[in-house]
């Protein structure tokens, strides 16, 4: 057996890794095969990465970042005497958003001229040098495995202890194998079977035709370097994928895979986007034997290209609804109510919501309706009515009823929601054209890509959290212009890309537009014009490729913006240094709850990566 040591690759997407394995096969590995021996090659890397907050703000969806902590709030129930409540929450002030130590090892086994095995393993450790939430500091007894001290990597599913195959994770570590597959290639046929990721589509911020895999948001959420195109985010799945090059112009690509959902950041970690006053009951265990499948047809006619996809899948983002808490704990000022309260979506606990003002603030932040969410509880849970709750017709009535029950709780009320998954059918079309202009002009070799995805009766979380989910037809379209342009003979070509995204029913994160435009004093009014976003990216390598400058911009006309400048430095063949800055602004125009990026408005940060490749 010939053992060949290879250099690691900076980016770790499946497409680039497969390209690497093919390159290895064509080199010394092929010579080893000619002599009758097997070929084995490997590469790897270690990296540390950190993100330092520059905003002075905490994540408002966490217990220690809740803006109502230690703030006097008046409650008016209309039944009990008015009072002033101060939420106990122990505010934090973190300078560090992320600190991760990573290791990665990749191996390639050439078994024969036509067959290979590829494997890639990763290990992460978080030393947890943060001001963490301590439930004992607020006397919390909240139910749920993730309601206590923060757990940075555990994916918690009811009834399942190991929801992601080939992953082992705990509070501060994650070990997983995103790639472990057998690849067979014989002329026009390629078959890949095993744990893998499938990347479709062209966009850097936007996922239009990139529908096969969900995203893993536990590691810096979606705030890594934009040009990496979700390479470290796609959730791997056990799959069989095959593509056939029918002729030089036509390619058929299809897959069948085990359904794996998007993995959300856990409560009270740095970037979780669901308020920690909720307990989530993830029901993926009812779906973990379900299959997704899809087919893609691609055509290439020189300057013209086209593709079409049809996918039958469970939407990996999931949908949410109210569910019974199952917690028998009395309202503090109403002894004997615990059994009934357990049959509603609430439990009495200091880690919950304390006032109507907090309720409506977070309903708006989560793109929900505070009034309709209350009515859904009363309508769908008989025990809520037995406790005295009634449906309401306006904001003021809802505020009084909420304040009554928050006062009776003696501390706060924690909500319980279920996460479920719904099957959908996705139809997509794409086209591309390469322009031919005057040499070195901006139109010469300019590439135009257009993608569109239509999903009939797509299921969304309703803004009331009712079990009767919102179902609407959705059309998503994207236009992408990209090219390499040489501005100087002394510098390599500059890569330029501009993109436009339009969605008819949801925002960038898949939330229904009906939940937009609410605030502490008003329920959500919705957005009738669809969702739009514009992205621009520039990559400029320097001579000798030791330095590279990147700039990415994501802009929402509704008032959100992300600006991300980045510098890449490669002082030697084995060492890489990346520095980038995330500047987020969600209040450029109007109500910040009318755009998507305001969800991460607190996350301005300087990020640094230092890696060694072998």
Short description:
With 614 residues, the protein is mainly beta. It has helices at 14-26, 28-34, 338-341, 356-365, 370-380, 382-386, 395-409; strands spanning 2-5, 39-53, 72-75, 83-86, 96-110, 115-125, 167-169, 173-186, 189-196, 237-247, 250-258, 278-282, 291-301, 304-314, 319-322, 346-353, 413-420, 423-434, 447-460, 470-485, 494-503, 531-541, 547-556, 560-569, 575-585, 605-613.
CATH superfamily: Porin
User: If you average the pLDDT, what whole number results?
Assistant: 92
CATH class placement:
Mainly Beta
Q: Describe the biggest sheet? A: 18 strands, antiparallel, barrel
Question: Total domains, how many?
Answer: 1
Shape type? globular
If helices are DSSP runs of H or I spanning 4 or more residues, what is the number of helices?
Answer: 7
Helicity, as a percent range? 10-25%
Description:
This protein has 614 residues and is mainly beta. The protein has one domain: Porin (Beta Barrel). Helix content is 11%, strand content 40%. The protein contains 7 helices and 26 strands. The chain has helices at 14-26, 28-34, 338-341, 356-365, 370-380, 382-386, 395-409, and strands at residues 2-5, 39-53, 72-75, 83-86, 96-110, 115-125, 167-169, 173-186, 189-196, 237-247, 250-258, 278-282, 291-301, 304-314, 319-322, 346-353, 413-420, 423-434, 447-460, 470-485, 494-503, 531-541, 547-556, 560-569, 575-585, 605-613. The strands form 3 sheets. It has an 18-stranded antiparallel beta barrel. Strands 12, 15, 16 and 17 form a 4-stranded mixed beta sheet that branches. Strand 8 and strand 9 form a beta hairpin. Helix 4 crosses helix 7 (395-409). The protein is globular. Residues 1-36 have low confidence and may be disordered.
